[in-house]
Amino acid sequence: MKNYKKNIMIAALASMAFGGSAQAQEITKQDWGTFKLWIDPGHSGRENSGLYGYTEAEKVLRVGLATRAFLFKYTTADETTIGMTRDNDNAYVDLDERSDMANAWGADFFYSIHSDAGSPSKNSTLFLFGGWKSNGNYIEKTPNGGKRMGDIMCPNLTGVMYNTETRGNYYDRVFYNGDVDTHENQYPYLSVNRRTNMASILSEGGYHTLPMQQALNINESYKRLEGFATARSIMEFRGLARPEKIMLAGVVTNSENGQPINNVSVTVNGKTIVTDSYESVSSCLKTTWCLVKKLK
Q1: Is residue 13 predicted with pLDDT exceeding 80?
Q2: What pTM was computed for the model?
Q3: Model confidence over 89-129: pLDDT tens digits?
Q4: Rounded Cα gap, residues 273 and 221, in angstroms
Q5: Max alpha carbon distance in the chain (Å)?
Q6: pLDDT, greater one: 49 or 27
Q7: Is 158 helix (H, G, I), strand (E, B) or coil?
Q8: How crowded is residue 163: how many other Cβ atoms within 10 Å of its Cβ?
Q9: Is 125 strand, coil or helix?
Q10: Taking Cα atoms as reference points, which of 294, 269, 290 lies closest to residue 281?
Q11: Which one, of 237, 232, 219, 238, lies nearest residue 58 by Cα?
Q12: Residues contacting residue 218 through CB under 8 Å, at least 6 positions apart
């Protein structure tokens, strides 16, 4: 029985997405302006364990770092206009501190990155901005902006998840307390929406308790793909042209039985990438920085 479980894990961890740039392109950075974005990778350290010993905290940190890196690459934004709650696995930040940091920094927008847990019948994303209902009317917290960001992010991030639907983009109190005529509490439900002084949103990017999605979560290139989709959404929100980048994304499988194949070299336009193996992932999970595979 023990060997059987190990084989299942090998199969799951081998089925990683792979992503890479298929062609080089000349980049002209767009003017970011003075807009101050706060990126909040949810949780800290190695909190909220998912399948295969990989945690939500580790995954969302790397999505946040990839998002920031893409924004630095495609715009004139820098550390003075994009701040982060934490940028390594050793920083522990409690819930109230997150909003306090962004408020003190004078952020214009707060984006909190999460992934979900549970036993879903279908993988799904969720987007929650601050809001409630009063006398039948939907009220968004001020400053506004969370709803509009969610409307942009929802299709973009859902599109890069594995076999994924979306539960939608919600006023957070409507999602948690129901779509009633008037909510008793006339303020946002989530702390990161309630305590922040700027427009805000929280995203749930798929389930880290779902085998295939978690296999993708562990993969470094996949997290960059999610970060790219996030960066494009933020640029669209800012009124900037979304960057066009040709990326490969998929799972290499056996054509006869449809099973994922691990440790495979794939070459496109002179660039080679090696898909994950159980051994590479197991070794990776023991390190602080998860570098599952590299472009040669």
Answers
A1: no
A2: 0.85
A3: 999 999 999 999 999 999 999 999 999 999 888 899 999 99
A4: 10
A5: 61
A6: 49
A7: helix
A8: 11
A9: strand
A10: 290
A11: 219
A12: 13, 16, 52, 54, 59, 276, 281, 284, 285, 290, 292
Give the residue ranges of DSSP H helices in 15-145. 56-74, 95-105
Q: What is the DSSP letter of 75?
A: B
CA distances from 80 to 61, 83, 107, 228, 235 (A): 19, 7, 10, 21, 17
Q: Which DSSP string corresponds to 198-241?
A: SEEEEEEEEETTSHHHHHHHH-HHHHHHHHHHHHHHHHHHTTPP
Q: Would you tell me the crossing angle of helices 211-218 and 2-14 to the nearest 10 degrees?
A: 60
In contact, 67 and 209? CB cutoff 8 Å:
no
Enter the tokens of residue 56.
Answer: 């939500």
Straight-line distance from the first to the last Cα atom of the chain, in angstroms, rounded to the nearest whole number: 38
Length reported for the chain: 296
H helices of the chain, in order, are: 2-14, 56-74, 95-105, 146-158, 172-177, 191-194, 211-218, 220-237, 278-284
Give the pLDDT score at 282.
Answer: 59
- Sign of the C-alpha dihedral computed for residues 150, 152, 155 and 158 taken in this order: negative
- Those residues whose C-beta lies under 8 Å from the C-beta of residue 264, and which sit 6 or more positions away, are 252, 274, 275
**Phi, psi (5° rounding) for residue 3?**
-65, -35
Structure tokens belonging to residue 261: 């194949």
Query: What was the pLDDT predicted at 18?
Result: 47
Q: State phi, psi for 74 to the nearest 5 degrees.
A: -100, -10
